[in-house]
């Protein structure tokens, strides 16, 4: 494999974590992150999955998401819920605060850019 080409298949080592109790609003969701690519501590690419539940989020980073399966809703503080299902893509910009709710167990591919 060329050093300039990196397939993203969700095959990185799994990292399982619960949602931190101080952010948790509903349920007891576990998350699974599989990192397939990292560059310079500023760019991360892989797959992420989560069980049903809801929690508070605040983004300092930029993230592109593509939902592979399941359903989630993101509700910005003071705004209306936005629902995403398999096949949908979206971007979260730095400064977003609100609630991430997994309605049906979901899996997504992501690109995170810090800084």
Mean pLDDT: 96
- What is the H/E string? EEEEEEEEE
The CATH homologous superfamily is named Jelly Rolls
CATH architecture group name:
Sandwich
CATH overall fold name: Jelly Rolls
C-alpha end-to-end distance:
29 Å
Overall form: globular
Specify the biggest β-sheet.
9 strands, antiparallel
Give the helix/strand class: mainly beta
Helix content: under 10%
β-strand amount: over 45%
Low-confidence stretches: none
Overall tally of structural domains: 1
Number of helices: 0
Summarize the structure.
The protein is mainly β. The protein has no helices and nine strands.
Characterise the protein shown here.
This protein is mainly β and 115 residues long. It has one domain (14-113): Sandwich (Jelly Rolls). The chain has no helices and 9 strands. It has strands at residues 14-18, 24-27, 30-39, 43-50, 53-58, 62-76, 82-85, 89-92, 97-113. Strands 1, 2, 3, 4, 5, 6, 7, 8 and 9 form a 9-stranded antiparallel beta sheet that branches. The radius of gyration is 14 Å and the shape is globular.
């Amino acid at each position: 494999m060329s050093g300039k080409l990196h397939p993203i298949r969700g095959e990185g080592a799994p990292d399982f974590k619960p949602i931190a109790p101080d952010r948790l609003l509903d349920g007891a969701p576990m998350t699974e992150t599989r990192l397939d690519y990292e560059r310079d501590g500023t760019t991360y690419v892989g797959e992420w999955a989560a069980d049903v539940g809801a929690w508070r989020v605040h983004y300092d980073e930029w993230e592109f998401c593509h939902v592979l399966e399941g359903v989630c809703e993101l509700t910005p503080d003071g705004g209306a819920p936005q629902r995403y299902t398999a096949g949908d893509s979206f971007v979260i910009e730095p400064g977003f605060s609100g609630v991430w709710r997994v309605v049906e167990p979901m899996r997504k591919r992501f690109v995170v850019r810090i800084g």
